[in-house]
Amino acid sequence: MAALFGARKVDTDVEFWHNPDRSGWLMKQGEYIKTWRRRWFVLKQGKIFWFKSDVVTPVKKCLSIKGAEDTINKPHAFEISTTDDNMFFIADSDKEKEDWINAVGRAIVKHSRSLLDNDQADYTTQ
Fold first, then answer.
1. CA distance 66 to 79
2. What is the pLDDT of residues 52-86, one digit of tens each?
3. Where does the record place the PH domain (predicted)?
4. 78 with 89: CB under 8 angstroms?
5. Are 94 and 77 in contact (CB under 8 A)?
6. How far does CA 47 lie from the centroid of its chain?
7. What is the SS3 string spanning 54-101?
8. Is 67 exposed, middle or buried (0-12, 13-18, 19+ CB in 10 A)?
9. What does the alpha-carbon distance between residue 90 and residue 25 come to, in Å, rounded to a whole number?
10. How many structural domains comprise the chain?
11. What SS3 class is residue 8?
12. CA-based nearest residue to 105, from 30, 21, 19, 18
């Protein structure tokens, strides 16, 4: 993974990238130019990142994930909804798609539970 960063300084600790919840290649549609490009994705601690050349782009908190073959007419497609956007991805196989959906779904549940735990703790300390 270090080669993806090149000489660019990354503000996060390198240890963050060890033992991700899920990582692998996916096709992602561009935000402005709607072409599909292959990117390396990393899911860790409720955040999903993708790499293109030496740029690391974090995705904001995921709200939901679901299959999207019918929506975009592509095999192995899925959609992630965030607070700001709906993004479409294409995995290499149906198994890869299901593995990503399961991993991101678990991260969403885990993240929402930790938010609830933090909210409850805040109320009891006030």
1. 5
2. 744 444 655 788 999 999 999 999 999 999 877 88
3. 19-109
4. yes
5. no
6. 6
7. CEEEECCCEEEEEECHHHHCCCCEEEEEECCCEEEEECCCHHHHHHHH
8. middle
9. 9
10. 1
11. coil
12. 21
Which CATH number do you get for residue 40?
2.30.29.30
Which residues make beta-bridge pairs with 52?
A: 55
Q: What is the DSSP letter of 7?
A: T
Reading across the β-sheet that carries 62-67, which strands appear in turn? 55-58, 47-52, 36-44, 22-29, 86-90, 77-82, 62-67
23/26 Cα distance (integer angstroms): 9
Is the pTM above the cut of 0.85? no
Per-residue model confidence as pLDDT tens digits over 89-125: 999 999 999 999 999 998 888 877 766 666 555 445 4
Instruction: Provide the domain limits for residue 56.
Output: 2-125
Tokens of 88: 């479409």
Compute CA distances 9 → 12, 13, 14, 15, 55, whole Å: 9, 11, 11, 14, 10
